[in-house]
Here is the input.
Amino acid sequence: MNSASSVEPTVVLVHGAWADASSWRLVIPRLLDQGIAVVAVQNPTTSLAQDVSVTKQALAAIKGPVVLVGHSWGGAVITEAGNDPKVKALVYVAAFAPKAGESVGDQVGAHASPPALSRIVDSGDGFLKLSEEGWISDVAQDLPAKDARVLSVVQAPLSKTTFGEKITAAAWGSRPSWYIVSADDRAVSVELQRNLAVTMKAKTTELKASHMSLLSMPEAVAAVIVDAFNAAKA
Here is the structure.
């Protein structure tokens, strides 16, 4: 058992951009069914600093070790917030993972632009959303169209400045990491995902899924999280 006495790890889930904690609604019961404590963070997606602050607030309320999981933009959040000493393992789900001094925008710009990025709508008030067609065709294309529409309806606006904010310290450099690549991703470059998994020496799983594997293949995503959980408590 690890140094946090006999307390088992808590899994903390961090959602992506244009989303909320309900993104994890199919993964959460699969973890709970195995007796794993779970917290899903509700981030405002107004800035990297604010999202990290809200995530750290969740970490502060937990006694014992943590397995920190991030989807998409949430990968940048856990890369920074994961420097908390409670965090024993990191799981990235089709997620960004900048190194120190790097931003998500830097990672996006280093690869061919995925189709979903052409579906971004600028509201003119400093925030961005994804069009309904973008959700149906390029973000959640392996979900029923009605489910993709629901994701479009509940999406939270994303501040235009977030992708330019740089990581100060990358937690994956000092913690074991797991990476789930979405092979059919049309929102985050698949090449980027594979490269990141290699860079962080992550235990890698590749799923034939859209960007929303946590909804289209929740059992497979949960299985990877459980693997990280078991490693963290060993």
Observations:
- Residues 1-5 have pLDDT under 50 and may be disordered.
- The first helix runs from residue 28 to 32.
- The longest strand covers residues 87-93.
- The radius of gyration is 16 Å.
